[in-house]
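Recall that a protein's primary structure is simply its ordered list of amino acids. Everything else, from secondary elements to tertiary packing, is in principle encoded there. The following example makes that idea concrete.
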Amino acid sequence: MSATDNKKKSIPVAPVPPAGVPVNLLSSVAPPSELPNFVTASPVLQKPSVIVPVSQPVQPAAGDHAVIDSSQQETFSPAIPPNKGEPTLPIRSPEDSQATQSPEPPSTPEIDKIGDIMPGSGLLTWMKGAVSSGGILQRVAEKAKSSVDTMITTLDPQMKEYLKSGGDLYIVVASDKEVKVSPIREAFQTVFGKATVVGEAAQSDVTAAQPVGYAAAYAAAKQRIAHVRSTCAHLTNNVPVLAIESYLQETVSDRWYEISLVLLSQPSLGIELQLQSQGTPVPAAAVAALLAATPADYAHAQTGYALTVGSVMADSLHVPHTEWQEATTGVSRREILSLAARSLAGSYKKLLAISAAET
């Protein structure tokens, strides 16, 4: 190796400062080199070229892939064709275009009803229409009213008569005893929804105190109705009057039953309904006691007995005279009369509908 090569490969050494002079470490660092410049020069805009539109452009065949030369750059032109940059789509007919559109949701009957009820009106009008049309709001309102009525009548049972009183039906019962008036009121209010049922005192003096047989009971009931119409001046022939008469019936030898006859009369429509309740068995010994308590010269001995069966059965069972049926069979007289009155009320309602259809 020559001396010249040794000189080229030798590493320069920084001069050593004289003694006593502080050493500066940064003095041996070379100055920084120039940073690289990544910003390229903006391309020179060329002169806009005029594009001549082609009347029949040639499109590549389906399946062929067009090869674009990256060296050819598009030049800016102020005259851009309308279909510049838009993909080529097949031409479709208006029928095809309508078929491809999303179908509209079909109108349902509920939507049509709502449209009829609220043609541009507010929420209150829609709610009023929904209630009057018998929809869900009406059922909710009826359920709420029924719940409130049940709560009121549970807290105060006497409010039931007040809540269901009224309407177009007014009935008079030929008795002022609640044991007769209450089941009649409940039965007619159940059948008609609302009804006003009142009681008027009435007496029968054409038969015995305890009628025996259907004929005697019918005569006593007719007498009670006539007594009410004669004493109550405000009653017209268009007001129905109802009477209840209990009688004894011997079905076979020594087989006695206590039955109630329910009679309704409305002369203006020519209506007279008769209905018998279910029978309550009466011991033959009680009937023998009634016969023994009736005097031989009793004026109405041919129609029955001088004492009622209730008084004899109450003394024998040691219960009030209105509760002997329940003590004997477990079914109260109120329940017996209520069931019979409901049947009569249903028949009366059908007759009213027939009469209204004929007029």
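The first helix runs from residue 3 to 9. The longest strand covers residues 241-252.
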